[in-house]
Design a protein that fits this description.
- The protein has ten helices and no strands.
- Helix 4 packs antiparallel against helix 5.
Length: 189
């Protein structure tokens, strides 16, 4: 009898726990959506509070990390953008774009050594995607890797890849936009 009651209590606790997690995820999405609305209305302090609340409720809510880091960068709080980026990388460690973006933030605060390590990791992850023949976004992965090469200081290799992309797809406006740009020009965009 005691064993049956104990099993019933454990099942009830698991059910309540799952229900609580789902409610947190729903609330987190609501906070994120409110944050986006505040951000669009240039109510940055309110947007930041909403994104931070979303992350507290659901530490795996990717959109809130993206929104918060973008907003911090937009208002010039680069160190905070870096902090959010590094937390985001714990949730999404294979996201090459965040590695490169974080490297750019480090470059903005003149920490080129740290920036370089983030660019290297981004290049490694883009190369891994390309080696796995991920057909989705093949050109985007190549272009992003090319930009990371330029940012790490290998402009020749980066520009070579951009030229190859343009030979294969002459209408690629994004690749065209970066053709011939150097490291500093990309960082200042």
């Amino acid at each position: 009898m005691i064993r049956k009651n104990l099993i019933s209590i454990i099942i009830l606790l698991l059910f309540v726990s799952c229900s609580f997690k789902n409610r947190n995820k729903e609330k987190a999405l609501e906070f994120n959506d409110k944050g986006v609305t505040f951000m669009m209305d240039s109510k940055n302090d309110s947007a930041i509070a909403c994104f931070e609340s979303a992350i507290k409720l659901d530490p795996k809510i990717k959109s809130a990390y993206r929104n918060l880091r973008s907003l911090y960068a937009k208002v010039g709080l680069i160190e905070k953008a870096i902090m959010v980026s590094e937390k985001y990388l714990k949730v999404e460690p294979e996201l090459a774009e965040i590695w490169v973006g974080t490297g750019m933030f480090y470059d903005k605060i003149s920490d080129s050594l740290k920036a370089r390590s983030f660019y290297k990791k981004g290049i490694e992850l883009f190369t891994k995607r390309l080696d796995e023949n991920e057909e989705d976004n093949l050109q985007n992965n190549r272009l992003n890797r090319a930009l990371a090469y330029i940012l790490i200081g290998n402009e020749e290799l980066g520009q070579k890849e951009i030229k190859e992309i343009l030979v294969e797809d002459p209408d690629n406006e994004i690749a065209e936009m970066f053709e011939g740009l150097g490291r500093e020009e990309i960082l200042n965009q």
